[in-house]
Amino acid sequence: QKEVEQNSGPLSVPEGAIASLNCTYSDRGSQSFFWYRQYSGKSPELIMSIYSNGDKEDGRFTAQLNKASQYVSLLIRDSQPSDSATYLCAVNMRETSYDKVIFGPGTSLSVIP
Amino acid sequence: SQTIHQWPATLVQPVGSPLSLECTVEGTSNPNLYWYRQAAGRGLQLLFYSVGIGQISSEVPQNLSASRPQDRQFILSSKKLLLSDSGFYLCASWGGSEKLFFGSGTQLSVL
After folding, report:
1. Tens digits of per-residue pLDDT, B36-82?
2. Cα–chain-centroid distance for residue A82?
């Protein structure tokens, strides 16, 4: 069973702090990794994708990938109350004929003003 | 960029009634299409995927079925709904951008 695991949370951080979200995956052959943000009652929104080992920065967001450790993380700098949401880690565990994207259970983040 | 249309946004159905949810995609051709379900407070569970017209694969055995009558149309159906079918149903498309994008979802309540 190919799986994606995340810290269940909830994670609470004060406004302006760094929020750190972690994810591990079971399929060593996976090549593409994503972070989605989901507000309550809404569909997931893609915020970051990462394909190579190392860091990838986009504004206040930094994704980190370590394929040897099968570990992906998301850092949110200068956290804002509007960042309060559930963050979903997703991994493309590509099958022979299609891209099979599996999601973790999500981590709930609350940014306290 | 691609756009994924899903309707209805909310649906309340009695146990034993049929279901039909439709999803259409614009802005991409020959996408891989997916149906996910999210139970309350849970993660996304992959239900079905399709790599082309008439090609459907099921990830989990259940009370639901899917069809793809046209390249950009994906339909989720049930003949008789169960209480356990309640959830947030999401259609998703994997196109040329090598990323997965979602429609706005349908919140289904089976009573």
Report:
1. 999 887 889 999 999 999 999 988 868 899 999 999 999 999 999 99
2. 17
CB contact (8 A) between residue B43 and residue A101: no
Residue from B9, B7, B14 nearest B110 by CA:
B14
Distance set, CA A16 to CA A12, A82, A111 (Å): 12, 12, 9
Given a contact cutoff of 8 angstroms between Cβ atoms, the answer to whether B52 and B71 are in contact is yes
Distance from CA of B58 to the nearest CA of A (A): 12
Burial class of B108 by CB neighbour count within 10 A (0 to 12, 13 to 18, 19+): buried
* A20: its two tokens: 């750190």
DSSP letter assigned to residue B96: T
Which residue's entry shows tokens 């049929």? Answer: B18
Partner-chain residue, chosen from B36, B44, B101, that has the shortest CB–CB distance to A46 = B101
B104: amino acid identity, one letter: S
Cβ contact (<8 Å) for A101 and B46? Answer: yes
Identity of the residue numbered A67? K
Yes or no, beta carbons of B94 and A102 under 8 Å apart? no
